Amino acid sequence: MAEKQKIRSSEGLSSRKVFGYLMGIPPLTLLIGIFELSYINFFYDYLKLNGTLFVIGLVIYAFINSLNDPLIGHWSDNANVEKWGSRRIIFIKYFSPILVIAFAFMWFPWSYTDQIIIFIHFIISICTFDTLLNIVVMTWMALLPDMTMNLVERTKVNFIGAIIGLFLGFFVLVIPYIMDNLPVFQLVNIVVAVISFICYALVIKFSKERPEFQRDKSPPLLGALKQTVKSRSFMMYIGWNFMRGINGSIGLGYLFVYILILGGQNIVWYFIIIIVIGYGSNIFCMKIKDKYGIKKLMISFGILRIIGGFVTFIFILNPALEGFIWLGLIWTTFFGGTGIFFTILQTVPIDEDEVRYGSRREGMFYGINALFTKPAASLGPIIATFILTATFYVTGGSRDAQPESAIIGIKCLFFLVPQIFSILALVFIYFYPVDREILKQLEINLETLHQQKRERLANEKFKKI
């Protein structure tokens, strides 16, 4: 009988489904990329929001957007499929239009001079945008683990997505530099919003949820929270991702000050290194992961990256040796290539949880992840702003306008601070409990469970005939 036909979860995804899922990459890259690269520059440097108000705003931002993520995740896990027709896609359908509108209108100043109005604009804009982004992106991310249980396939799909994001990234990188011409900056972001809306429409059209998971439900909120935080692999992932998030928020948000030590004319070389060396290392790590194991590889590469970062920082403190910054950038970029394994680290706890409790709860896991790691997106800029303020950085000033203390502060942000948080990240990887043999057994257990779900669903359909 057709309804009872066995379909293994290890089978590859159709090109149609892969295309549908990957259409979520352009808005992800464009919206998040432009936001991360521009919001600090726009509110702090362009509109000149007071540093104290800026930090207060970041704290409020972290608090609001940390608390709402578990609620959003639990909400999506328990969507009424009979009523709405889907468990994940329905959220993308209804919230993505509001998201792109919130993004487009964020860049229209409410005031250029009144600090309180600028502050209110800052808070409302970033909190609204980020909340809507979480709803759409978390449900989009939850589609892939639902669509395939194969960890290698998940990694490959995400890697293809990263390549697409790479090419779009070239466009994203130029956006902050047109901010001085505000009408053009605003127009470009309206166009980005329209493109993002179209891409989400394609996600809705071509992505398909697996029917055997649509009846999975999460327990009540408190019980779901307890079940989630009991996962050791998940909590270790949370710790690692928190430290990674701090480094990421500093790296993206403060590119405008890194130019002062890299030289504006050399910025192209910075991106060539990040792209060519970074993605080359990603491919290399994927090829050797089976030989060495993900955990061992991440620890070994991480240690080498940290050593190179500290050595580079010591060298470039001497202005005459600032040229070593490029060697250090090549070194740290290459040995940061194990970040490609984030998909495996992220989804394995979800798979373990399904085997343990019988239901898939991606939304809750992504929500709890955001609860713990969302503050990292604010903590990074808070740390960076404190360092720049403490070293007397002149907002909007050229290198010649900066005191030597500010240049040292920028060098700390570029090479010293990332290594400190990388050390802390490695501690969590060391205690991450899942590796090669456990992963193999997990895939077997998942296949058995999913076959049972498919058979149960087929039997129910057969009885209705």
Would you give an account of this structure?
The chain is 77% helix and 0% strand. α11 packs across α17. It has two domains: 12-217, Growth Hormone, Chain: A (Up-down Bundle), CATH 1.20.1250; 220-434, Growth Hormone, Chain: A (Up-down Bundle), CATH 1.20.1250. By secondary structure, it is mainly alpha-helical. It has 18 helices and no strands. Mean pLDDT is 83; it is low at 1-10.
Looking at how many chains there are and whether they match, the oligomeric state comes to single chain
Which range best describes the helical content: under 10%, 10-25%, 25-40%, 40-55%, 55-70% or over 70%?
over 70%
Overall pLDDT level: 83
Query: How many E-type strands?
Result: 0
CATH class of the largest domain: Mainly Alpha
List the helices and strands and how they pair.
Layout: H1 15-22, H2 25-46, H3 51-77, H4 81-84, H5 89-105, H6 115-147, H7 151-174, H8 182-206, H9 221-229, H10 232-253, H11 255-262, H12 267-292, H13 294-316, H14 324-334, H15 342-357, H16 362-390, H17 404-430, H18 436-464
Helix pairs in contact: 1-8, 2-7, 2-8, 3-6, 3-16, 5-6, 5-8, 6-16, 7-15, 10-15, 10-16, 10-17, 11-17, 12-13, 12-14, 13-14, 13-17, 15-18, 16-17
